[in-house]
């Protein structure tokens, strides 16, 4: 009986780890997205309190649930990053785009 309980506990632990891995892998920052791919804004990460850049991103429409798309990167993958929220396009620096946490569009 002890062996069965131990096996069941190990199986539950493996399942939980797999679920967490899937969840973690599906959330990433906007600056790591591929051009042309549509994603959903999960949240804006504040790097300090208060964070004026994060607040400005929210004011521009980067809010939870909004669709965002990377249009293009600067030369050699550098700054700026052209992104589209709704019908509006913005040029963001990489460090600004890193504050926008996105998830895959399902």
From TrEMBL:
One of its GO terms (molecular function) is transition metal ion binding. SMART domains: FeoA. This is Fe2+ transport protein FeoA (FeoA). Gene3D superfamilies: 2.30.30.90. Keywords: Iron, Membrane, Transmembrane, Transmembrane helix. The chain crosses the membrane at residues 12-30. Residues 28-104 form the Ferrous iron transporter FeoA-like domain. The lineage of its organism: Bacteria, Pseudomonadati, Pseudomonadota, Alphaproteobacteria, Acetobacterales. The keyword Iron applies.
């Amino acid at each position: 009986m002890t062996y069965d309980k131990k096996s069941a506990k190990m199986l539950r632990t493996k399942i939980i780890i797999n679920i967490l891995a899937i969840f973690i892998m599906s959330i990433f920052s906007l600056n790591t997205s591929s051009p042309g791919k549509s994603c959903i804004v999960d949240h804006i990460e504040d790097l300090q309190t208060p964070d004026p850049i994060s607040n400005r991103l929210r004011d521009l429409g980067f809010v939870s649930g909004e669709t965002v798309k990377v249009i293009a990167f600067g030369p050699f993958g550098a700054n700026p990053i052209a992104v589209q929220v709704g019908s509006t396009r913005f040029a963001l620096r990489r460090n600004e785009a890193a504050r926008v946490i996105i998830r895959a569009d399902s």
